[in-house]
Amino acid sequence: MEKKEAKPNKKKELPVWAKYMGLSFQLFGVIGFGTWFGWWIQQKSEMKFPLWILIFSFLSIILAFYQLWVSMKQDR
């Protein structure tokens, strides 16, 4: 009988820098989309005060940092 060596079950993971580089683009995209959407609504409403830009910018920043927190929590 041949003895089979047990190979460790290693998943190929991305380097840490690559993972967080991708996350930075995701954060940039979420914040950029939220700001653009606020600007688009602002143009449709014809208000002078940039209320919609502020609301959607801050909401997108909160959402982006929540995604960052969840991602970093999974790394533990």
Structural descriptors:
2 helices; 76 residues; mainly alpha
Rg for CA atoms: 21 Å
Shape: rod-shaped
Number of strands: 0
Strand and helix order: HH
Strand content: under 5%
Mean pLDDT across the residues is: 86
Structural class: mainly alpha
| Contiguous helical run count | 2
Helix content: over 70%
Q: State the end-to-end CA separation.
A: 42 Å
Low-confidence runs:
none
Largest sheet: none
Overview of this protein structure:
With 76 residues, this protein is mainly α. 71% of the residues lie in helices and 0% in strands. The two termini are 42 Å apart.
Brief summary:
This protein is mostly helical and 76 residues long. The chain has two helices and no strands. 71% of the residues lie in helices and 0% in strands.
Q: How are the SSEs placed, and which strands pair?
A:
Blueprint: H1 16-45, H2 51-74
Helix pairs in contact: 1-2
